[in-house]
Amino acid sequence: MDRKVRVRFAPSPTGPLHIGGVRTALYNYLFARQHGGDMILRIEDTDSTRFVPGAEDYINEALAWLGIGIDEGVREGGKYGPYKQSERRDIYREHVKMLLDNDKAYIAFDTPAELEAKRAEIPNFQYDASTRMSMRNSLTLPKEEVDRLIADGEKYVVRFKVEPGRDVEVNDLLRGKVTINSSILDDKVLYKSADDLPTYHLANIVDDHLMEITHVIRGEEWLPSAPLHVLLYEAFGWSDTAPSFVHLPLLLKPDGKEILASKLTNKGKPMIISLWATWCRPCRQELDAIAPKLEQWQKQTGVKMVIINTEGIDSKDAVMKMINEKGWTGYELLFAKDNSLAQKLGVRGIPFMIYLDGKGNVVDTTTGFAPGSENHIIEKLLEITGKKAKK
Questions:
Q1: Model pTM score
Q2: What is the pLDDT of residues 299-328, one digit of tens each?
Q3: Which residues contact 225 (CB under 8 A, 6 or more apart)?
Q4: pLDDT tens digit sequence for 86-119
Q5: Most buried one in 107, 288, 349, 370, CB count within 10 A?
Q6: How many helices (H) does the chain have, and how many strands (E)?
């Protein structure tokens, strides 16, 4: 390679730096130093709903304590800044316009209710080439109508236009060539007018290109998204300078089992772990019932609730969009590698609640949803924190 090696570690300031993130940062740092390259720290803070005050400082301090030196970043500066995504809005708007002007993306006005109706109508509904022409978007509406809706302040998203029926090759330096047919990919949301921010997929590609990143070293949970990223590089005309990919295997326990996340701890206080799935309407009903109380419960009892989506990381955009629309708060959201987690735990019903005491012991479980089940959750919260339920 003729270019100078440039790698990046790009955490989100949504909580403490966990062991998986430390491993990724270390591999990037060692690779850069081995090749006389640069290590960039980029803060991906576009998800304002999960922002944790102080998390960015914690990340910087943790990396410094570990001896992982940063060459460019928010604190260090550099000629490729800003290094915080929330300060790069104008850059993202410009690149969204490029995709729209070149017919690589389109504007969609579908409301949450309309999307929910489609999911109920079509089993395993996916917004893609097979369904996009039946939806409310700039491909089906007259230009005058699109312009009017935007002028009237109608909320919209910009979706990537995936052309079906072609093999997309991801060349991974660790795994070799990985081929995915584009027909299984959905038209991912790249930008949301509601908060004037891009999604991870757009910001990630634009930033890596403009910062001249040569190697993207990240966890294998991002491998399902890599074909989309390859297509985005093509759409922008950047294939010749696209970075090389390395998707690191998951960290495992000594017994060979997957470490889901080191964040599944609550400093000796009780926890609730909830397994659920995007397609599960009872899951959404249950969260609707308990979400308004979660933040209050956490303050009163110290209980932390962790929601694990069991469908896999590739469902993240849909999950986050739904949660943002609902306004759910007071939880921590994680994604299992795939739906095997529920099978490993013997979970037959979704949603599935696991109640843990301060020592990590399972004290109770709840399967399924029934009206009023949120009362059981309240009672269990109070019980495992040593408080009595109020009559």
A1: 0.67
A2: 666 666 666 665 554 455 666 666 666 666
A3: 201, 313, 314
A4: 999 999 999 999 999 999 999 999 998 899 889 8
A5: 107
A6: 11, 15
> Rounded to whole angstroms, how far apart are CA atoms 86 and 44?
8
Helix axes 316-326, 200-210, angle to 10 degrees: 120
Sign of CA dihedral 234, 235, 241, 242: negative
Structure tokens at 247: 């998707």
Question: What gap in Å lies between CA 24 and CA 235, rounded to an integer?
Answer: 28
User: Who's near 194: CB < 8 A, 6+ residues apart?
Assistant: 155
Instruction: Note the residue count of the chain.
Output: 391
Using the CB atoms, write b or e for 166-184: b if 16+ within 10 Å: eebebebeeeeebebebee
Classify residue 79 by burial, with Cβ atoms within 10 Å: 0-12, 13-18, 19+: exposed
Q: Is the dihedral of CA 23, 28, 31, 34 positive or negative?
A: negative
Cα–Cα distance measured from residue 165 to residue 103, given in angstroms and rounded to the nearest whole number? 18
